User: What shape does this take?
Amino acid sequence: MGIILLPLFLGIVTFILKGHEHRIIRRKLLITGALLHNAGVVTLFFVPDFFSFSPYIQVDKIGFLFLILTSFIFTLIAFYSLGYFPLKRLETAAESGGHIFVSCMLFFLAAMTLAISTTHVGILWIAVESTTLASAPLIYYRQSKRSLEAAWKYLLICSVGIAIALLGIFFVAAASKGTGSELSLQSLTKNGMLLNKQLLRMGFILILIGFGTKMGLAPMHNWLPDAHSEAPSPISALLSGALLNCAFLGVLRFYQICESAGLEAFANKLFIFFGLFSLFMAAIFITAQKDYKRLLAYSSIEHMGIIALSIGIGANFAGMLHVVAHSLTKVLLFLAAGNILILYRTKYVSEVNGLLRTSPSTGILFAIGGLAIAGAPPFLPFISEFLVLKHGLLTGHYYAMFLYLLFLGVIFVSMSKTVFRMVYGKKRDLIWGELPKTMFVPLAAAAAAIVMLGIYLPEKVALLIETAGQALKI
Amino acid sequence: MLTTFLVLASSRLAVRIKAVSAQGALLSVLYLTVRGHLFDIHTIALFFITFIVKTVFIPILISRTAKSVQTKAEFEPVMSSPVTLMIGAALIVISFTSIRFFPLVTSHVVSTLTVPAALATVLVGFLILVTKAKATNQVIGFLILENGIFTFGMTIISDFPMMVEFGVLLDLLVGVFIMGIMIYQINKTFDHIDTRTLSVLGDE
Assistant: This one.
């Protein structure tokens, strides 16, 4: 409870502190919020029931994994923002709404935390909708025509999507009628067998479409490339690394209910279909992509597809591992893309080259991230992708695995080609001089995490992911 | 139901806003009738809050934005009004006939017509969302969609905690508020609020 209210409170405080003279205080508050949130999550690790004041807010095993990830990523991005936005401000003359921006970031954190930690389906819906509302102003930071268009699309498409999810939740509620269960996860899964199957099935489809819109599953992904490419880079990283996970968690909660009602096979089929379709769409658009931030956005769609697929074939551990892998890598990449954007002032792949010589540290970090996300060993995404494949073959999903490999192959080739083109080449002159340290350290931390975890997965971490994967099975 | 049609048919913005507001009022009255027999605090509170949010606040918000962006321009349908009306009618027929396939148990107080009516409202809301090009109209479409979902939810369940229902309404209110701000911004940047011009982003 505390970790939800705290960012909310700080958000309101920053909202009040307008004007230039408060800029430094606002920055400090952002960092404080992030660090305190971290502290809260760590306490939760040692004292599991510390924050459960209300019966509807309880962090379970899956939620805890997502919570750690969100908290960690938010901290990285908060530090990165300290370096990024002052530089960005040199570029766009009209600086306004700094207080709105910081407070929206904190509101966003609060909403995500609520979405992760609640077990009541109604509160889950409210939280996910609030994440949309809190992040729409963030996308609109640049106040240009393009970012306005992206923010409008995002707001409208996601709101409608989530409204459909609400309809789905009502269907699930109707399915539980007469079983005497409350609309919380525990009581729904406990009475799973009593639920009305037909209604639950319809409800699940609606929820998958609704939260799937938010999660960026094709064919409901239209908002995602626009929003990710137009939002400022730290926000893209936050959307991709944390928000998509929250939406996915929303779907997972209902997957658990389906599982308890014995509709596992039905839900799995849907997951496999949407997963493969997302991979397919991503493979097509990644190949022909000229804008590197859009490229990364489509890569998010690809990875959401992989995650859905892995749950669909029952590879829960691999799926959870991939959630972690994707978030860390994508944060690294989007932040590196932010550096590139500031160094080169262009979003076109064709105009970026010689990154390794122009800014060696950005170049190296971007190359690591690019190779990792494309699926090259020995990084963490490779491990999880491989585990998905292994599990799929063992359980006999040959067609799905064939398509999976095909799409991954296409994506690997085109992604790595793009990354190499950007990294190698002649040195360019720097416009702003060398970038400040806060713009490298968070990246380096994320890069270190994916390399380390790729080579050696510590027992503690493995156990955490394993229990989350097992908690998914009822 | 009728109000939804009115939105479809009317071309003037003010009428549309009034229609949505009326729909909100009907919706909040429905809260009272659904529970019918017992007038507890929960029901009364919900009635008042829904009424205030849906019939007073949101329409005021929309009309204020509409005024600030100075659009009286009415003629912009992607599809002509009669055609959308026809499609709307078709959707309603579909939802009334298909309802037999849903094994829904409604409470006895409400007539069996409420569920198909709710479904039809959802579908028509979608239709408005897709066929209207102006940003304000899209918001209205979204609201109608939400109203439909609310009606649906109300007829089949009654055991959401009050906090949750308020939360949903609050979300909706903030959502419309932010949409209003963005419409204002769109108008400022583009000099109009026709979303058809919002198509720079995309893949070739």
